[in-house]
Amino acid sequence: MPDDLVRERYLALLAALEELSTRGPMSTLTDIAAQVKTVGYHDPLPEPELRNSLDQLAKWGFAEPFRDYAAPVRSLQGLVVRQEAWALTRRGRGVVAGVRAAVVDVVRALQLPSRLLDGVGRTLRDILEHLGGDHGLLPGDLEDPANRRVEAVLT
Length: 155
What we know:
Helices cover 61% and strands 8% of the residues. The protein has 155 residues and is mainly α. The longest helix has 20 residues, at 90-109. It is elongated, with a radius of gyration of 23 Å.
């Protein structure tokens, strides 16, 4: 799969788990699959792919599985799954909250004048260029009043 689609899948899973966490501490695969469609990911997501994606989120520390080993086993697959339920970890909740905050900030930023945003963008690019060359000191040309783009835009 292309990287963009994989990224969308993981974002949809994190969003689904975050939404489901408001209803209860853990969610089954069936609940997660239904919620993934609700948050806007409509590509088919068979149970093995869903489980593999959740396992990858668990490896990254964003989600964790809970298995009830006392649950009745109906099949060989049931032996592996054992009434599996999933929840976001603290780190996963932090990532979802960070993404939501960034989206809110972007919406606010888009309401600013475009010249101001361009000035901020150019200044940040200049700072990043200087970091790439000399890590010790920030060169004086950023302090030069002629290069203070953000101030010029604000005044």
